[in-house]
Amino acid sequence: KMIPDPQPRRYAGQANRENYLMNGQAFLTKEAEMAPLAVRLTDALFAAGVLGEAALQLSFGVGEDGAAKASGTANDNEKQGVLPWNQLAEILVCLEKRDRLPSEITQQDLKEVTEHNAWRWFALLSDERLGTMVIKSLAKK
Q1: How many CB atoms lie within 10 A of CB 8?
Q2: Is the pLDDT score of 2 beyond 70?
Q3: By the 8 A CB rule, do 123 and 20 touch?
Q4: Measured at the alpha carbon of residue 56, what is the angle toward residues 53 and 58, in degrees to the nearest 5?
């Protein structure tokens, strides 16, 4: 299940907390390790004619809406022409379910993207302060 992520942010501190978490060493290291995959797959989607020019202008939630910025990570993607992880994962899963994945994108690529995207959500939303801000008004307990 995906945790709802209201846009715009309900709390001023939410983007600040995301920023803090995304600039932690473990987060930065993992993002740097995975960045070449995002670049390669985004390029493959553009080359296959799947993406339009506006694809890089969308926000897909926690840690990717531009409100929080991590140094040299996924939030620099729009400038570099790379899809954010949430968007990349969603597009690839939809294409795979409809048997429309470009031939350059493997099942292993899909697995790595969805696992990394899940890791990102867990790394951010397992933080008690951020998790509370994101779902506070959506759940009673």
Answers
A1: 9
A2: no
A3: no
A4: 115
In terms of Cβ atoms closer than 10 Å to its own Cβ (0-12, 13-18, 19+), residue 137 is: exposed
For residue range 97-117, list pLDDT tens digits in order.
Answer: 999 999 999 999 999 999 999
Contacts of 85 (CB under 8 A, 6+ apart): 34, 38, 64, 74, 113, 116, 117, 120
Q: Does residue 133 contact residue 13 with C-beta atoms inside 8 Å?
A: yes
Structure tokens at 120: 């990102």
Structure tokens at 89: 């994962």
Smallest CA-to-CA distance from 22 within 134, 117, 116, 120 is with: 120
**pTM for this prediction:** 0.77
Mention every residue, 6+ apart, whose C-beta is less than 8 A from residue 126.
none
Q: Which two tokens stand for residue 35?
A: 């960045």
Spatial distance between the Cα atoms of 13 and 113, rounded to a whole number of angstroms: 28
Helices 12-22 and 107-125 pack at an angle, to 10 degrees, of 120
Residues 6+ apart with CB under 8 A from 97: none
